[in-house]
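Quarterly update from the structural biology core.
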Amino acid sequence: MPTPRASDPTGLHRVLDELPGGAARLPQAAERLDTRRELWPDEVRVRVERLNLDAASYRQLERKHSIDGTADGDAIRAEVLEIVGRRGKMQNPETGSGGMLVGTVEEVGPDSPLGLAPGDRVATLVSLTLTPLVIEDGLARWDGLGEQVPCDGYAVLFGRSIAAVLPDDLAPELSLSVMDVCGAPALTARVVDSYDAPVVAVVGGAGKSGSLSLAAARRAGARRTIGVVPHAAEAELLRGAGLADEVVIADARDPIALRDAVAAAGGPADVTVVCVDVPGCEGGAILATADRGTVVFFSMATSFSAAALGAEGLAADVTMVIGNGYAPGHAAYALELLRETPGVRELFERRMG
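Predicted structure, tokenized:
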């Protein structure tokens, strides 16, 4: 049974370690979480069906466990199991990121404010990095070679967690892929709407968050959208999807190449949205953005110090925004974009195989 320790809507009562001197850690910063099944009054327990590892985390695991360019799925699976078993949550120690999950509500505490009921099929809209998680099947149905992970186990949501009931008209795997990145299009739309018909460049435009951000920018009034991709195959996909007015190929880690590619396509951009999961893209995004413009970073690989010091060193008068993955109504908005934009749905379904 739960200890007498009082619950906190942020999940502090599930943290098993603390800072020197006894200061509290939030669950995301904690090294270990309490994963007991028994609920505090404001919690919800979910029977997990599928995890969705975030792109930055999975790519790091894939690079770490590859031999001659071939990923070792067994090694990737073993490391995910080790992380969850040791920490009580899925938080990649290298990237600090996790992902999200789909499952069915098993039990709801009497004081839960989330509005969920037993039997609801939900996607969590908070990160696995702060979600108590137990895996009970050893991930036996996962080959380790993709971000979506069939899983049997349970997870616990706190009073300030967020979850969305899955829509009936979309496959759960598709809904999960969309909800995993639904903060990006919502914030992109908000930023674009603050300008008068801006030029918008999306770095990583053929990816999940990138394609949704391009669709959101166009809907919010961008006069020109530029999709930046790393190679010809993704350029062909993005052109076929019809989401960008211009598609350019550039290595986002090469600041001069990125700046010049965006300029040649009609830039500099008033709004630049970074949706790639590799480090070292800060300088190029800043250079590709006009004075008084805004750079939105939607990548777990972003370095705050590189962005802040880089802008200062370049004398760049730009606003920089870190996307936090949440905005009111973000899940419904992203699903609406998917339904109404055939190119977005095509790219998502291609990536799901």
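The chain has eleven helices and 14 strands.
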